[in-house]
Amino acid sequence: MDLSIVIPSYNERDNIRPIVSRIHEALRDAFVDYDIWFIDDSTDETVDVLQEVEQVDERVHVHHRNDARGLASAVVDGFELARGTYVIVMDADLQHPPELLPNIYKHLKDGTDIVIPSRFVHGGSDGGLGPFRKFVSWIARVMGQIALRRLRKISDCTSGFFGLRKEILKNADLDPIGWKILIEVLVKGTYKTVHEIPYEFLARDAGESKMSLREQWNYFRHLLRLVSQSPSDRRFILFCVIGASGVVVNMIALAVLKYLVHMNDVVASVIASLVAMASNYIWNDQITWRQTTSDRSWNVKLPLFVAISLVGIAITTLVMRGLRDLHVPVLIGQAVGILISTVWSYTMNNRLTWRD
Ligand code: GDD
Ligand code: MN
């Protein structure tokens, strides 16, 4: 079998026949041996529809689950059942156009490990979501990209539409929470090439979305779990949290020096920043990079840390100034600068200060 198409379905009665016929239509001239796997948790007549289709269509297989629920776990079951060299995952509700299948398959066959139809590359569109869902979806993607290095270059990491060479999952212990199976695949798979192709995420014709607040919470838990399992991602997050804690230390120190010690404002401000820097150094040394094997002493590490932080301050200010010239408000420019200098400081401290 060349290609298995895995489709999670939950109460999609009116979408089953249309999607099957559109898949056949789309792949008719593609010279590919394929089958279609529905991994179904439905509680309505979808179950009967699927049974009828399975009986008359030899390419269609149905795996109905009574005990399990959940989109991502359905897809994991699909990966286990699918016999194709390549697997393409798509929703049952036709928001993912089957007409893209030949193109995805072609990229896979040409050697790309993971192919992701994306709403956010040039030519794609997110038309199927309302403004609120668009916003939530944006937050979810940004959170994912901050938390997990492997998602950073992917524009549509929360997509439920993607194809892969099945072999890339050989050593992946897939254990997703909730819906977003693609982030699990991207973090745990063994692959070299990912390619995104544009597509238009369409509105639903029949049935309704099962997205809920609970699934958004699950996504957050899923991210946390993936971060905690990955040492380098965990380090970056700790570095950011400790950096933020430095702001609090800075303010407290300033308050103490100004109101209790009655120091001059400028001197108090400089000392408060130095105290925050020292505090950040200690936390990072004791927590973030606790597991490094290097036995360098603090009088090498601390000056490096301070030098990197000072350059970070310069980067922040330069970015703010540069953006201000482009008429970006100073506060926003500063925020962008802080983001860039955080990445700079993390990378340099990782490579120099706490190098293994
Ligand atoms: N087996 C199974 N079990 N399938 C499920 C379950 C479940 O518990 N919950 C939902 N599904 C199926 C639906 O039947 C549909 O085929 C697909 O998963 C997506 O569910 P929708 O309810 O249509 O979700 P959506 O349109 O809000 O979200 C889709 O678009 C997102 C774009 O941001 C999904 O494809 C997401 O994966 C995608 O990220
Ligand atoms: Mn949908």
Order of helices and strands: EHEHEHEHEHEHEHHHHH
* Percentage of β-strand residues: 5-15%
Assign an overall shape: elongated
Low-pLDDT runs? none
In what order do the strands lie side by side in the largest sheet? 3-2-1-4-6-5-7
Helix count, DSSP H or I runs of 4 or more residues? 11
> Average pLDDT across residues?
95
User: Got a strand count?
Assistant: 7
Molecules bound to protein: guanosine-5'-diphosphate-alpha-D-mannose, manganese (II) ion
Please bin the fraction of helical residues. 40-55%
- Structural category is alpha/beta
The largest sheet, given as strand count, sense and whether it forms a barrel, is:
7 strands, mixed
Distance between the termini: 46 Å
Estimated radius of gyration? 25 Å
Description:
The protein has about 350 residues and is α/β, with parallel strands linked by helices. About 55% of the residues lie in helices and about 10% in strands. It has eleven helices and seven strands. It has helices at about 15-25, 45-55, 70-80, 100-110, 130-145, 180-190, 215-230, 230-260, 265-290, 300-325, 330-355, and strands at about 5-10, 35-40, 60-65, 85-90, 115-120, 160-165, 195-200. Helix 2 links the parallel strand 2 and strand 3. It is elongated. About 35% of the residues are buried. Guanosine-5'-diphosphate-alpha-D-mannose (GDD) binds next to strand 1, strand 2 and helix 3. It is a multi-pass membrane protein. It holds the Pfam family GtrA_DPMS_TM. This is Glycosyltransferase family 2 protein. InterPro entries: DPM1-like, Glyco_trans_2-like, GtrA_DPMS_TM, Nucleotide-diphossugar_trans.
